[in-house]
Amino acid sequence: MCGIFGIVTQSKDLPVAKLIREGLQRLEYRGYDSAGIVMISDHKLHLKKDAGRINDINAKLHFDEMPGLIGMGHTRWATHGPPIAKNAHPHLDCTGKIAVIHNGILENFQQLRKELSARGHIFKSDTDTEAVSHLVEELIKKGLNLREAALEAIKCCEGAFGLVICAADHPDSIIVARRESPLVIGIDKARGAIYAASDIPAFLPLTRTALILNDNEMAELKPDQVDIYDLLTDKPVKRDSYEVEWSIDAAEKGGYPYFMLKELHEVPAKVKAQIHIPQSDIDAFAKAIIGASHFYITAAGTAYHACLAGKALFARFAKIFVKPILCSEFRDELRDCMKPNSVVIAVSQSGETLDTLEAVRYAREKYNAKVCSVVNVVGSSLTRYSDHVIITTAGPEIAVASQKAYNTQVSALCLIALRIAELQGQMPVDVSQKYREALNGVPAVLEKIRTEHEQKIKKLAEKYAKKPNFYFLARGASVAAAAEGALKFKEISYSHTEAYAAGESKHGPIALIVKDFPVIFVAPPDDTYERLIGNIMEMKARGATIIATVAEYDEKITELATDTIRIPHPKDEYYVNLSPLMYTYPLQIFAYYAAVHNGHDPDKPRNLAKSVTVK
Ligand code: G6P
Question: What is the pTM of this model?
Fold first, then answer.
């Protein structure tokens, strides 16, 4: 949450403020309540900031015209203080010569503000961040240089931070530091520039050479040099750069009206890439799980729904019961009862969701559990806390509402479950061969949904877009698709949606059913199909409008439903058992078109942000 982007260069022909503004726009998925940029020029700070989205602020304030070769910007997801202009970052000290941008939460901010106010500092915002600029101001007055002052200031701070600090009187460098909030450094030899950002897409069109900053590290960035230090010992740290594999255009809309549509269209190719990751990655992961006695799977939001699909796939193929736990509930749910020899599978797009990190840290530190992660971002914090990692092949996901990441996560979990079954000899070779063939055929099914069914799904979405309430019901392995379909619709189209195990719907939800209440059933022709028909009849009897996601060859439920979304997979039990990989995608498309029809920006849903780095 909150996007940070700083640039240090000596190249006079680089439009630095414009590049910062563009980089921030690529980070807007992290928050879009307010934005601001500060530049150093002529030993002065030049600051522009306001509430609102970067495009609108830029139209008023013209960020691109700001002078200077060193600067930094911020796009905010409000925590401390409402989303108004004075709380927009950067925040200055009393002299107006020191500027700070921050992602995270300083837990002792009240104490710091009190102490600094008592010493005569005047606060202009309600934020926790501003305390840091006043602390640095005091320390520079005592004669410390910018890096020393930043280090001492950070020692006073408790909580999580990705910080970038610059000062008018130190015009050759900026200081960055992190603890529990992400920060990555980009090295652009071609342009003679160094970047600091909350996430790689900020600088992806400029360079693919990156340096990871670990927790409790700071760095001084100069135009041609990066010096990293350990925050706890102040000792220099050596770090090699690495090449990011994501393609440079992955962080651009490429002619699409929204990132979400671009990313939805990428799903078939991304799932195909996931299915073809090296066998050795899958084997190492699968063997780590086989060795354990107790199994948990944890994540937040959409990634949690991938865990629900994973649970079903592990039960179906590997005959292992994996307990899904929301990462924010992990510690409370497992208090004193995690068993020895447990494995925790953590699933995350960003690898930076703080609740997910806390869950795995708790499991590791308190119970010595093994951590196996399915993560989209190479080098993210979660990869560093994990014993085994599978990197998903989604590439950068910019739309706040996750979709291609979900599909690759479920595909990865399916690969692992199948591999465990093979390694444990639970599946005859010819059966596993059939599953492999069906798995290889899944991307073509997804591609057909995209090319041949998307317009039908769009029409359906427009028909129902204005409905204020929806139920999404399913049984067994499809409960994950129902949950994800409901979440997607809720978060971008703003209708009230609830997902339920269909059998449970008669224990309460059915009380709300009146004539024309839309109920979406996820109904692959698996062993839940006949029982699901009973639930459809119960809803129909009370006047509900039935919309069903069914196989293309379906007849029975099609007869009962008002509308159907049809999944073009072959009539084959192996495909049917892989339904979690195919039945969610059309519901993501459905939500997208409903949101657009209702006039909402699906890339930036109200109040939400991606990469949730607060508890
Ligand atoms: C937020 C995002 C979701 C994401 C969830 C977990 O809610 O909007 O798209 O699924 O966080 O994030 P992670 O990065 O851990 O997958």
Answer: 0.89
CA atoms 152, 158, 160, 165: torsion sign: negative
Q: Is 124 a catalytic residue?
A: no
Same-fold call for 260-427 versus 452-599: yes
Q: What is the pLDDT of residue 249?
A: 80
Rounded to the nearest integer, the mean pLDDT of the chain is 95
Measured between alpha carbons, how far is 477 from 312 in angstroms, rounded to an integer? 5
Question: Could you confirm whether 2 is annotated as catalytic?
Answer: yes
Superfamily the domain 3-247 falls into? Aminohydrolase, N-terminal nucleophile (Ntn) domain (3.60.20.10)
Cβ(551)–Cβ(575) under 8 Å?
A: no
Give the CATH number of domain 260-427: 3.40.50.10490
Token look-up 């010493």 returns 119
Write out residues with Cβ below 6 Å of ligand 1: 300-303, 348-350, 353, 356, 400-402, 608, 610-612
CB 34: neighbour CB atoms within 10 A?
Answer: 26
Beta partners for residue 236, in sequence order: 229
- CATH fold, domain 452-599, is Rossmann fold (3.40.50)
User: In a mutational test of the pocket of ligand 1, which residue from 302, 308, 330, 409 has the highest number of ligand atoms less than 8 Å from its CB?
Assistant: 302
CA distance 110 to 114: 6
Q: Which residues of 414-443 are buried (b: 16+ CB within 10 A; e: fewer)?
A: bbbbbbbbbbeeebeeeebebbeebbebbb
pLDDT in tens, 196-252: 999 999 999 999 999 999 999 999 999 999 999 999 999 999 999 999 988 878 878
